[in-house]
Design a protein that fits this description.
heterotrimer; A alpha/beta (159); B alpha/beta (308); C alpha/beta (222); B: 308 residues; alpha/beta; TIM Barrel; 8 strands; 42% helix; 15% strand; C: 222 residues; Rossmann fold; 2 domains; three-stranded antiparallel sheet; 7 helices; 27% helix; elongated
Chain lengths: 159, 308, 222
């Protein structure tokens, strides 16, 4: 694959994953800039719709990062997220995007290194999988939406 | 006499009857029917003909029953509620009687999910108890369900099944009572391995006086192997097999398994003859019809009585 | 309520093959309650269909709309305003709603996006089970409030059959034996004696067997 830089969206809960991301920062740990973080109060707020839309808008990979199971600040939010991620994976498989482009991770607020590890792991995995098939096909037959996505990516500094 | 069938005459005469079972072929091959029937001839008083048992398509019970009549044997034609509506059922009852069939068994029928056509629609226009009522109405009132008079009422001897071991146990006797109220003449039970539980069931039957209203035939099936015993215990709905039986079959090993199975069967028959209210046995030697003669002989039930 | 389940996406994709513009129409009635065809499901389906088309390098324009109900004429007005501009509609309402749309919007093919399954209840969040077969002649007073037609796999009126085991049906060990339920309930109510008389033979003509049904209240007709 020619220099493909994946766009990975990470839905992170405020209480654990986002804090872990912060910690990774203060610890000066390196992780790929491909990962764009979206902060939520709890992963339980993630809806299947958001996950699908991320792929529609050009993401090559998506992951949801929440608290360790049993430690969710809102008690069961991360369990709900886990089920929704599983559901969305099935849909992505059925529509030809591929369920393996979406994952669920759990970590505590203290796990700065784990955050960085997951970010690296996911980015590499997506890099190997290649660009989002919805985008790849679009390059052959650009639609109005495709041009929109192209503009966005260019604005983000990615070719 | 309601039907004048051999089965009815023997029961009315106080004999301990033996009925057998014949599973029709999965096709139109008459030779299969003849072969099985010949193994039962002289060893049983009348022969159950199953009706698409376990929802697997087989030669129809009315056709096989007619073949048995041609061979000089007496069929107990089984009719399930799964495949026919009341119109077809009453029509088949007319036809059956016209062909010489005199004993009919009214059953619910296994769900089509078990068979080779699980996507079929099921009927269940009537249930087994309502079918009993229907046959009784046709026989005694000379009317079809809709009320029209019958030209040549079928005088059938009406049978049904009872499962002493299905759940809920306490309700089974009440349901048997319902069948008696509906008009059943004789009952065949599911095959019995748990003698103690069956005797408890029969006590409940006698307490309600049902043994005097219907003739009860106890079901027996010889075990071929410990695998078969375990299968029946675990996979067959409404079947109870005590651990002692499984142990005996297991201890017998592969060589002696059949022998042990036959011995257990004969012991069961001898014990059943002692239970008050039991008027006979229904011997279901599934895919082992050639064992019937040996069993019946060892149990002291041969020769079968002559009807004068 | 009426319970439905979304059709597999592949099946829907095959149905809309050749169409570039579609309306996805949901319903705020039963299918919202059983999470099969409400606003949320409309959004998810539309997104999934767009993604599927994108992976094949084709575009799909989708219009999402969720009506109050699809089984009452007045509530169809919002759809009337946009229906002319689209060649096809996928409806996620129950079979009644889908058919009503087909009757009222004669120029547009209306496709079913769900499989309508049964009349049932919410046992717990995410789990719906069948209760009623709409036989047109209710006997719930005689069976402790439990329906022998819908809850017995054989619709027996004098059950249970010999296949009832540990309170479960022979057809599926996860399915309760309807007659075990009836027996237990009648016992609780102290009405077991009611079960000793055979229940009469059913008149199925009030059910689907009698043909498509109609109910009229003359006093309400304008």
């Amino acid at each position: 694959m020619e220099d493909f830089e994946p766009i990975v969206i990470a839905f992170c809960c405020h209480y654990c994953a986002y804090t872990a991301a912060d910690l990774a920062g203060t610890m000066r740990l390196q992780y790929p800039s491909n990962v764009r973080i979206i902060r939520l109060p709890c992963t339980g707020k993630v809806d299947v719709r958001h996950l699908l839309e991320a792929f529609e808008k050009g993401a090559d990979g998506v992951y949801v990062a929440g608290c360790m199971e049993g430690d969710c600040h809102f008690l069961k939010g991360n369990f709900r997220a886990k089920k929704r991620v599983a559901w969305a994976k099935k849909i992505l498989e059925e529509v030809g995007i591929g369920g393996d482009r979406l994952e669920m991770y759990n970590m505590s607020a203290a796990m700065g290194p784990r955050f960085a590890e997951v970010a690296r792991e996911m980015t590499e995995k997506i890099r190997k999988l290649g660009p989002n098939p919805a985008k790849k096909a679009e390059r052959k037959a650009p639609s109005a939406e495709g041009k929109e996505i192209g503009k966005e990516r260019h604005a983000q500094g990615v070719t | 006499m309601k039907s004048g069938s051999r089965l009815e005459k023997l029961l009315a005469g106080g004999h301990f009857v033996v009925t057998g079972e014949l599973g029709p072929p999965k096709g139109a091959d008459v030779a299969v029917v003849e072969k099985k029937a010949n193994l039962l001839k002289g060893n049983v008083d009348s022969i159950n003909v199953t009706d698409n048992q376990t929802a697997i398509v087989r030669m129809s019970s009315i056709a096989v029953s007619a073949l048995l009549i041609r061979m000089g044997l007496e069929p107990n034609m089984q009719m399930v509620c799964r495949d026919r509506n009341r119109i077809a059922m009453q029509s088949d009852i007319f036809g059956a009687y016209a062909l010489g069939i005199r004993n009919i068994l009214c059953l619910s029928g296994d769900h089509q999910k078990f068979g080779n056509h699980p996507t079929a629609k099921n009927v269940f226009d009537l249930d087994s108890i309502q079918l009993i009522q229907t046959v009784k109405k046709m026989r005694d009132e000379h009317k079809v369900l809709g009320g029209d008079e019958i030209e040549g009422a079928p005088q059938m001897f009406i049978g049904a099944a009872a499962n002493p071991f299905a759940d809920p146990f306490e309700y089974r006797v009440i349901r048997l009572g319902k069948k008696a109220t509906a008009g059943v003449d004789f009952i065949q039970t599911q095959c019995i391995y748990d003698m103690d539980k069956f005797e408890r069931f029969m006590k409940m039957v006698r307490d309600r006086g049902l043994h005097e209203k219907v003739f009860i035939l106890a079901g027996v099936t010889p075990l071929k192997s410990v695998g078969m015993a375990k299968y029946m215990k675990e996979k067959v709905a409404g079947m109870e097999v005590p651990d002692e039986i499984i142990e005996r079959m297991r201890k017998a090993g592969k060589e002696k398994a059949r022998e042990e199975g036959l011995s257990i069967c004969v012991e069961q028959i001898q014990r059943l003859r002692q239970v008050p209210g039991v008027h006979g046995i229904h011997l279901m030697a599934i895919e082992w019809e050639d064992a019937v003669h040996g069993i019946v002989e060892r149990a002291g039930l041969l020769p079968r009585p002559e009807i004068l | 309520m009426i319970i439905a389940e979304g059709k597999p996406i592949k099946e829907i994709l095959a149905m809309i093959e050749g169409y570039d513009k579609i309306i996805v129409a949901g319903c705020k009635g039963c299918v919202t309650v059983c999470s099969a065809g409400g606003e949320k499901e409309v959004g998810i389906l539309a997104s999934a269909l767009r993604l599927a088309r994108q992976t094949r390098g084709k575009a799909l324009e989708t219009k999402e709309i969720t009506l109050e109900r699809q089984c009452d004429t007045e509530y169809l007005e919002p759809l009337r305003e946009i229906a002319d501009h689209y060649p096809v509609v996928i409806s996620l309402a129950c079979g009644a709603g889908i058919q009503f749309l087909a009757e009222k919007f004669r120029k547009v093919p209306i496709l079913p996006g769900v499989n309508t399954q049964f009349i049932g209840v919410t046992e717990e969040q995410g789990v719906w089970t069948e209760r009623c077969q709409a036989c047109g002649n209710c006997v719930l007073d005689r069976t402790g409030g439990i329906c022998p037609v819908a809850r017995c796999s054989k619709s027996l009126f004098n059950g249970p059959c010999g296949g009832s085991k540990s309170g479960k049906c022979e057809v599926d060990s996860q399915v309760d034996c309807g007659w075990q339920l009836i027996y237990d309930r009648m016992k609780e109510l102290g009405q077991l004696d009611k079960l000793e008389e055979p229940m009469p033979i059913k008149d199925w003509s009030t059910s689907r067997d009698g043909g498509p049904r109609k109910r009229v209240r003359e006093d309400l007709k304008i």
